[in-house]
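Contributing new records

If you add data, match the layout below exactly. Sequence lines come first and carry their own label; structure lines follow with theirs. Keep one chain per record. Anything else will be rejected by the validation script.
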Amino acid sequence: ARDMKECLLIQMAQMGEDMSFESRLISEHLDALLENHLPEIARKMNCSIEAINRAIERMSKLDTSPGLQIGRHQNHPITPDVIVESTDTAGQYSVRLADSDLPHLRVNNYYVKMAKDVQVGEKTRKFLQNNLRSAQWIMEAIEQRKNTLLKVTQVIVKYQKDFFDKGQLHLRPLPMSKVADDVGVHLATVSRAVSGKYVQCSWGILPLRKFFSGGIEDVNGQAHSWEAVRAKLQQIIDEEDKAKPLNDDEIRDQLLKGGIKKLARRTVAKYRKLLNIPAARFRKKF
């Protein structure tokens, strides 16, 4: 296929059911369909909007990128590095490393004794002693990194307890420097510790970097992270009347009613695009 129109038409031709109406819809009105101009299409095709909606439902089975079925990159599963679990006492949380049950690295005691044995040749003993020091350094570095990750997560849980209790709408602004000060390490150490690391909690498996962001205060002086603002925006879109979807100004007004002030329209549009939410005219249901 040379374009999406041909791609869809080829798939419909290969289906074992009558897709003549859908084929005509794609052949003659694809651009208008992509712009969600359903009343215009209905008028030109002399049919009802309900018939077009039924055709769209049937065409939802088609694949706009069938080549990915043979060339799709492998998505590797994400495994958590830290686990946060609720305890039975006063809504507190326990934090542990996901591999905490695994045995610790250790040096084979046979080689430790051999490195101290005077009956072993001096060259061999020096070789063993140098490699044992390297092994010890590696083990200590791994343990230090694990301890840093554990401490950082414990501080995150302390500052983001509302998130773990109530969900994404309650995520607070948290500068990485604040966590670094609490843990007693350099900012860059925290950044490296959380890079590519994930935490498992009751809200799923999440990247640790998610908990670090700026934010904004609401009308009551309560701080909200940008992640929480985006979650609130998503909630507003999910609950809107799809027959009369909200434009960006109206979304901003709804956020203001929810206490989120001083948010520019362009910021609303930016967050909407980051969430892959189309503009109001594309969300409209006829």
